[in-house]
Amino acid sequence: MSFPSPLAQPVHATAATPPPAPPHRELPLPVPSGGRVVLWVVAILLGVVALGLAIYFLAFLGPAAAIVSAALALVPFAIVLTVIRIIDRWEPEPPGLIVFALVWGAVAAVAMALGVGLAVALAAPWLPETISTVVQAPIVEEVAKGAGVLLLFVAARRAFDGPVDGVVYGALVGAGFAFTENILYFGESLLTGGAEGAAFTFFLRGILSPFAHVMFTAATGFALGLAARSGAKGGAALGRWGVGLLVAVFLHALWNGSAVVADFFVLYATLQVPLFLAFIVGIVLLRNEEARLTRLRLADYAAVGWFSPAEVDMLATRGGRSRAIAWARSLPGDRVGAMRRFIAEATSLAAARQRVVIGRDPRAAADERVYLERATRARQDVLAR
After folding, report:
1. Do 253 and 328 reside in the same domain of the chain?
2. Which of the listed residues 262, 290, 305 is the one where a domain comes to its end?
3. pLDDT value at position 23?
4. What is the number of domains present in the chain?
5. Tens of pLDDT, residues 114-153
């Protein structure tokens, strides 16, 4: 008999031992979204644009300055990626989408910003630099970066489950943009001010503000994450994106303005640092909400016998996951890998179940069955004798 969902099946006799995964066959994979084709086409185009940017940077800065600047830019880039990885640890995003978000920020958004900047300089050479810095740059750059987050939302909707995902994708786009932009700034400072000028610029951008672009675009991603969590589509989702974009532009303009029309270090200490601390608090709260939702959705399965309540506690709390991995390490053969798979598949299962509940993804029920089977198989690998 076929059931529309695993939860529609009869209650199992015992929660401690859910039905085994079907033996002697490869585990199924979720059916990829048709939007991935769009992302692949865009990725190929980005490769061509990246080549053009590389040629431009080498011609503008020279090989030596470009290489030194790229090495310097890797320092804040590595710091930012480490933090994003920590944020994304609860339910990691697909590696391909992570790379796409970084490349969009580093290539597409930078190319758009440079193109518009050049067009404005040619069409309106009389435009004051202050206007370009405080008005033009925030609008153009945030629209360019936000377009990448919107593209991910549309083309990879099934991997865009909520605010944490939105923040991660927005932060990745911002990190990619900052990396390429830092190469340009560090290179210009090196050419005009020598090592001292480059060191000062590195201090300002690489030490004091490595998360600036990350926070700006994360605001756009957060808004789209709320749209995903509520099941908003079409104009409603686009409206959420617009609101997030306005917040990103405002924060960006405030940041640039503090460097142009005010005492940067005073505003940095009194405004930017509190904003960064608020960003951290917000991330913690979002992570807690993600854990709560995971527990809520896995409890649906525990109620009909697929998991035990103790397993739900283990899978839906940071402490429970840490203890589970430590326990798996003590088992014969070191079954940490199997335990990590169990945790990952169960988390994906909870996300798929949430998509079923809100009704925003017609393929969610199929994903639900796939992740349940994979989680069951991973669980068996952990407990194998």
Report:
1. no
2. 262
3. 45
4. 2
5. 999 889 888 888 888 888 888 999 999 999 999 999 999 9
DSSP string, 95-145: HHHHHHHHHIIIIIIHHHHHHHHHHHHHH-TTS-HHHIIIIIHHHHHHHHH
pTM of structure? 0.89
Contact 353, 321 (CB under 8 A): no
Q: Are 144 and 170 in contact (CB under 8 A)?
A: no
Domain closes at, from 199, 228, 262: 262
What gap in Å lies between CA 53 and CA 66, rounded to an integer? 12
- Same-domain pairing of 221 and 248: yes
Residue 160 belongs to a domain: yes
Taking only the tens place, the pLDDT of each residue in 248-285 is 999 999 988 887 777 778 878 887 888 889 999 999 99
pLDDT tens for each residue of 213-229: 999 999 999 999 999 98
258 and 277 housed in the same domain: no
Q: Are residues 364 and 385 in the same domain?
A: yes
Of residues 214 and 32, the one with the higher pLDDT is 214
Give the angle 138-65-128 at the CA atoms, nearest 5°: 30
Q: Tell me, yes or no, whether 223 and 282 share the same domain.
A: no
Q: Summarize the confidence of residues 40-64 as an average pLDDT.
A: 92
Exposed/middle/buried for residue 105 (C-beta within 10 Å: 0-12, 13-18, 19+) = buried
Nearest to 315 by CA among 335, 297, 334: 297
Find, among 12, 144, 10, 170, the residue nearest to 80 by Cα.
Answer: 170
User: Can you tell me which residue has the tokens 């890797």?
Assistant: 74
Q: Round to whole Å and give the CA distance between 133 and 131.
A: 5
Q: Would residue 15 count as lying in a domain?
A: no
Terminal C-alpha separation, the chain: 32
Q: Are residues 126 and 234 part of one domain?
A: yes
231 and 282: one domain?
no
**For residue 3, which of 15, 19, 17 has the smallest C-alpha distance?**
19
Tell me which residue range forms the domain holding 118: 35-262
Clarify whether residues 227 and 310 are in a common domain: no
Q: Residues 65, 182: contact at Cβ < 8 Å?
A: no
